[in-house]
Amino acid sequence: MHISELDTPVPVVDYDIACRNIRRLQEYCDANRFKLRPHIKTHKLPLFAHEQCKAGAVGITVQKLGEAEIMAHTGLTDILITYNVMGQEKAERLARLTNFARLSVAIDNEKALQSLAWAGSRARVPIGVLIEFESGGNRQGVQTPGQAVDLAKAVLSHSGVEFIGLMTYPTTTKTAEFLREALPLFRKAGIEVSVISGGGTPNAYRTHELAPVNELRVGTYIYNDRMMMAAQAARLEDCALSVLATVVSRPRSERAVIDAGSKTLSSDLLAPGQGAGYGLLPDYPDASIERLNEEHGVLDLGRSPRKPEIGERVRIIPNHVCVVTNLHDSIYLHRDGAVLAQLSVYLRGKTI
Ligand SMILES: Cc1ncc(COP(=O)(O)O)c(C=O)c1O
Predict the structure, then answer these.
(1) What whole-number distance in Å separates Cα of residue 317 and Cα of residue 252?
(2) List of domains in the chain
(3) CA 307 to CA 255: how far, in whole Å?
(4) How far apart are the CA of 157 and the centre of ligand 1, in A?
(5) What is the pTM of this model?
(6) What spacing in Å lies between the alpha carbon of 133 and ligand 1's midpoint?
(7) In sequence order, what are the residues at sequence separation of 6 or more whose Cβ sits closer than 8 angstroms to the Cβ of residue 273?
(8) How many helices (H) and strands (E) does the chain have?
């Protein structure tokens, strides 16, 4: 079967491009002695998680316990959860999961530590703990090196959990500033920091210049998307996932309507000034997907010298590929257009 025979709208992934992206970043990490721990949020597929580990990754990163459970049950044995795991129910699940995989969790507060300590006291093997610090992302994370040391001391006061290091997202120049202050404090306190985990595709190949991290967590690099192209972290030929859609109406000469709306492409836009619309049409680069309803996308063809006909299929590079993956039950893997497999996106929608 060829991808041109698939019903639309449908996400298709070029297997060779995805594998090339996996290999390329692994080579960079090997050359710079970084451990690579890919974030599976982009593909949400056990197949690619195993491919990443076969290529040399030390393990995987997930955001949710539900993602960790599925991945562990497919035989992945080293999993980092970069999210404060909190509450009795999750602590019980975490403890059970240590029967299948070596788990570590990034935390930034004592409440989360209490849940981990409870899980650790019932775990088959100790649960690794990283302290998340803020270094420019303005999300969660301890705010000062002193807070990081205090939380690490609290981790060390519990058995069943093991302090292994520090973690931040994304890696920026502020990461280096934080570490410059924090690492001497840890040394002074006699606390070993074995893992310093940074992340993010846009800066991935600059990690060696940015900060003294020894582990890299990246997700989007496997598929890439229009956002990564805008950040000059990827070229069109590095984009592995496209959405195929059909032109279902041409109500006016400068307007086309496709069968892909927000349920297919998501509503994510690029940052102001980086490009308009809800995706890139590589074959009609001057056309803009200017509006989305749930099921329809409205294309402005005013600046496009060529215009797609009713019934024609168009290829779209999504703005933000991770959220697109999460919208689809399955993706089609292909090589040069020949369908290799239909894969269920098992991890989609895991909010818990
Ligand atoms: C904690 C964490 N690590 C790593 C990543 C991977 O980032 P990217 O997809 O830019 O590679 C993310 C993405 O949101 C993240 O939240």
Answers:
(1) 24
(2) 3-9+227-344 (2.40.37.20), 16-222 (3.20.20.10)
(3) 9
(4) 30
(5) 0.97
(6) 14
(7) none
(8) 11, 16
CB of 200 closer than 6 angstroms to any ligand 1 atom? yes
Closest-CA residue to 261 (of 285, 287, 279, 240): 279
- Ligand 1 touching residue 325 (CB < 6 A): no
- Contacts (Cβ under 8 Å, ≥6 apart) of 171: 135, 198, 199, 200, 203, 207, 210, 211, 213, 216
CA angle 123, 127, 132 (to 5 degrees): 150
CA of 215 to the centre of ligand 1 (A): 13
Give per-residue pLDDT as tens, 200-229: 999 999 999 999 999 999 999 999 999 999
296 Cβ inside 6 Å of ligand 1: no
- HSE, CB side, 13 Å, CA atoms: give it for residue 32: 21
Q: pLDDT tens across 57-83, in order?
A: 999 999 999 999 999 999 999 999 999
Q: Give the pair of three-digit tokens for residue 215.
A: 């582990």
Terminal C-alpha separation, the chain? 37
